Amino acid sequence: MHIQHVIGARPNFMKVAPVMGALSAYAAVHQTLVHTGQHYDVNMSDVFFQQLGLPEPDANLGVGSGSHAEQTAQVMLRFEDVVLTRQPDLVLVYGDVNSTLAVSLVCAKLGISTGHVEAGLRAFDRTMPEEINRVLTDQLADLLFTPSSDGDENLMREGIDPQKVHLVGNVMIDTLIRLLPSAMSTWRQSQWREWEGRPYLLTTLHRPSNVDDPEMLQGLLNTFGEISREIPVIFPLHPRTRQRFDSAAYTARFPQVHLAQPLGYLEFLALQRFATAVITDSGGVQEETTYLGIPCLTVRNNTERPVTVTVGTNTLIGQDMRRLLQEVGRVLFGGGKRGQIPPLWDGRAGERIAAVIVRELG
User: pTM of the predicted model, to two decimals?
Assistant: First the structure.
């Protein structure tokens, strides 16, 4: 049984690791790994392979950056040769990046079965490119693995055959649980160890709605500067964000906002673990903070992970900077959400996925 995993961007890496690990327990399963290269620099890709213990990819498509159309088209063109040569029994795709949809389209045209890990998530906002990727990938997939019950409900509403849908839990949390001890060890040997026991806010931004609009980005930066007068702010900069403002001039103006290069998984996980709160627009960070019990303030009008709001520690801020300041103030006075851990976020989602695959293809 040949299972081919396809990943393209850093959120995928944390999701594929537990599934590959669980499938390796089955002697009859042969696995290959394809990296499309959607995230391709050392800080956004290579370091994650090292820290997560992933094998070297069997194929790297080297697609790199580009518009949504360019990335999707290049992945389709380059992946077709790989999948025709390898002839897998099942191709597993992860999350909602452009590579996910591109690979699903190729496989559907060729009659090759696909499974979607992290299926069923919906923000109900078609202006988000990720939402288009999610909806279309789920329509094409033969096996759909959902992280929470709202995913099942969304798929039923869209007419997906219930026999294809499997509620397995959150594979991101599998990786978090496995590597949290390593993250703590790495923390104590890193430049960030001095922050242990000190209050700070951690923030990360990358979505076009926040960083591509100069007025919105400037409003966020000014708000972080204002927050930093009350509590230091650690701000690892996504390459997309760094390109859009003069970071040197900004740090001179707000010395308590500590800008940093993109961090590896272990370093960022440790920073989340000790943060007073996290400000983000990342879906994965909403999940990780929920598991860790850290208040999360999400600078978006919606989320495809509503369980992090209804059960977890997440609060949707929208793009209202006044409300962001109010919620930070609430956190600083002890009023931040602590929430609970959602069902099946127990570190065994990868095992459940592997069991379903072996049963269905067996």
Answer: 0.94
Torsion angle of the four alpha carbons 203, 287, 124, 152, in this order, in degrees rounded to the nearest 10: 170
Q: How is residue 182 annotated by DSSP?
A: H
Neighbours of 274 (CB within 10 A): 19
312-318, long-range: CB within 8 Å, 24+ apart, which pairs? 312/286, 312/287, 312/337, 312/339, 312/340, 312/341, 312/342, 313/289, 313/337, 313/338, 313/339, 314/286, 314/289, 314/290, 314/339
CA 315 to CA 54: how far, in whole Å? Answer: 33
Question: Domains in the chain: how many in total?
Answer: 2
Q: Please write the tens of the pLDDT for every residue from 47-73.
A: 777 888 899 999 999 998 889 999 999
91 and 225 inside one domain: no
How far is CA 157 from each of CA 70, 122, 128, 153, 203, rounded to the nearest angstrom? 32, 12, 20, 6, 35
Which residues in the chain come in under a pLDDT of 70? Answer: 39-46
Strands (E), 76-171: 90-94, 114-117, 143-146, 165-167
Whether residues 290 and 181 fall in one domain: yes
Catalytic member of 5, 35, 206, 238:
206
Scored b (16 or more CB within 10 A) or e, 110-130 reads eebbbbbbbbbbbbeeeebbb
- Please say if 258 is a catalytic residue: no
Assess contact for 4 and 88: CB atoms under 8 A: yes
Task: Give which of 295, 258, 292 is closest to 277, Cα–Cα.
Answer: 295
Distance from chain centroid for Cα 147: 13
Domain assignment present for residue 339? The answer is no
What pLDDT does residue 188 have?
82
With CA atoms as reference, report the closest residue to 48 among 87, 83, 82, 7.
7
Residue range(s) defining the domain that contains residue 151: 2-169+345-361
Distances (CA, A) of 255 to 177, 191, 219, 289: 34, 17, 17, 26
Both tokens of 350, joined, read: 């990868």
* pLDDT digits 0-9 by tens, 154-189: 999 999 999 999 999 999 999 999 999 999 998 888
For residues 165 and 187, membership in a common domain is answered with: no
